[in-house]
Design brief:
The protein is α+β, with helices and mostly antiparallel strands. The protein has four helices and 18 strands.
Length: 487
């Protein structure tokens, strides 16, 4: 630029001094031509430099964009599964009384439970849901609970620090329209069902009444939506198929069953709303064939009969905006033994004990008569409108079971499995929210057993005052406090 200014000034000077002399005109023209050529060359050089600078900026922008795209693609792959955390620490104080009046207690039982929830949208009509669980008593190696390794109880009862798959299923909408049809395939959402959500301070986590079934289960469920054609809110009909036991050892994969038939489960469920916000009613029928004894003596597992469960339930969440939640469940169990007895080791020495051959709710060989039982469960929860205390809640529940009552609740969220009680159980609790993710709950359970073997499918339930049943648990009190975080 400086050279251009100097040359321009020189040219002007020459023109002013020698303008009148035509002999220098050619020299002036030549000098002007050189100046123009120099200016053109300089302009081209500047243009190249500017272009190069712009090119560098564009390359930088492209590199930045590619880096951002890489990050988005990486996040997309990593975030195909959305994760949620549910963590609980709990302390229980148990007080036991046997039928012969002997009392014992354990006042300091601590446990941790970790649940990792998974969800992923696969396509518009298909999604995946899963949950893995670690549940253990403090400093426990898992040997303290005999049946914690059974499939319905894995992750549902305190064990060691192993992680179990509690749920893993795909919801697939096969048909859309006025009568949509969906399949739920895999390890089902069959635990923590209605109406546990009130005490657990959460939304409903399952479809099936917790009075009749609570635990892990594998199967396939078809859901037919009926709301559009009936105008009844939340109306749906479900059909389910699963297995409570499957022979999976040794040569059984190629057809050798080892003499034990699979326990097959079929069920039908009808849901509907009552036209009231937060209402749900359900009636269901479930049948399990070839139930297995689950003997604790090696090689003594046997098929002992069939069990049918018929259940009706109704619940209301925040009934008429009163902050009151109410529920009631009623169920009938019909157990039909096949006359077969299985041996058991009562003393724990690895040898079957004489006199402890048992079948499905019977201890008599050849007994095939139906064993009918029933149970009901009812309760409520009230939420106080107090922003200062984060809207605390109180709840009360009561359940009763008859002599031959039997349900598939061995994997219950509650370690006492109170809903299997052949007798009476009362529970009162208080929930103190800490924030939107965490809360404290303290409560007390009082269980009075009238008959032996609550929650078990083996042996004849006997009045606890009968001779030989003095060591059986008669009364149980449990006081607890828990801290729960879920987000």
């Amino acid at each position: 630029m400086k050279k251009t200014i100097v040359l321009s000034a020189l040219a002007s000077l020459v023109v002013s001094v020698y303008a009148a002399d035509s002999s220098f005109q050619a020299q002036i023209d030549e000098l002007k031509s050189k100046i123009e050529a120099l200016q053109k060359a300089q302009n081209e050089q500047m243009s190249k430099q500017q272009t190069a600078q712009v090119g560098k900026q564009e390359i930088a922008r492209v590199d930045e964009l590619e880096e951002r795209i890489d990050k988005v693609e990486t996040a997309s792959m990593v975030n195909k599964i959305n994760w949620g955390v549910d963590f609980r620490t709990r302390v229980d104080s148990f007080k036991r009384t046997t039928a012969d009046g002997i009392k014992s207690s354990n006042n300091d039982v601590w446990s941790n439970r970790l649940r990792l929830n998974m969800s992923s949208v696969i396509t518009d009509d298909m999604k995946f849901t899963g949950r893995v669980v670690m549940y253990k008593n403090w400093a426990d190696d898992g040997s303290g609970f005999t049946y914690s390794g059974m499939d319905p109880m894995q992750g549902r009862r305190p064990s060691d620090s192993s992680v179990f798959v509690d749920r893993a299923y795909v919801d697939w909408t096969v048909l859309k329209g006025n009568v949509p049809v969906a399949l739920t395939i895999g390890r089902q959402p069959s635990s923590d069902g209605p109406s546990h959500q009130f005490k657990d301070n959460t939304v409903r986590k399952s479809t099936y009444s917790a009075l009749s079934f609570d635990g892990g289960a594998d199967g396939v469920v078809a859901t037919v939506g009926l709301s559009k054609i009936t105008s009844i809110p939340d109306m749906a009909l479900r059909f389910g198929y699963g297995k409570g036991y499957q022979q999976n050892t040794g040569a059984s994969y190629v057809g050798a069953s080892g003499g034990i038939a699979d326990t097959k489960v079929v069920g039908a469920f009808l849901d509907a709303g009552l036209g009231i916000a937060g209402s749900l009613v359900q009636v269901s029928a479930v049948k399990a064939t070839d139930v297995v004894s689950n003997s604790n003596v090696q090689g003594q597992n046997k098929n002992i009969g069939d069990v049918s469960l018929y259940t009706a339930m109704v619940e209301f969440t925040n009934l008429a905006d009163t902050n009151l939640d109410l529920f009631a469940h009623y169920a009938i169990s019909v157990s039909k033994p096949n006359g077969t007895l299985s041996q058991f080791d009562i003393n724990g020495d690895g040898v079957a004990d004489t006199g402890y051959d048992v079948g499905l709710l019977t201890s008599t060989f050849g007994d095939t008569s139906d064993k009918k039982g029933h149970a009901f469960w009812m309760g409520g929860r009230y939420t106080f409108s107090s922003e200062m205390l984060n809207n605390p809640r109180i709840g009360l529940e009561y359940n009763h079971g008859s002599q031959n009552w039997f349900s598939f609740t061995q994997g219950s969220n509650d370690v006492t499995n109170k809903l299997a009680t052949r007798g009476d159980a009362i529970e009162a609790y208080y929930i103190q929210p800490i924030n939107r993710y965490a809360y404290l709950r303290t409560g007390a359970q009082f269980i009075d057993y009238d008959y032996s073997g609550s929650g078990m499918q083996i042996g004849a339930p006997t009045v606890l005052t009968s001779p030989g049943y003095g060591s059986q648990l008669d009364k149980l009190k449990n006081y607890y406090l828990l801290f729960n975080v879920s987000y």
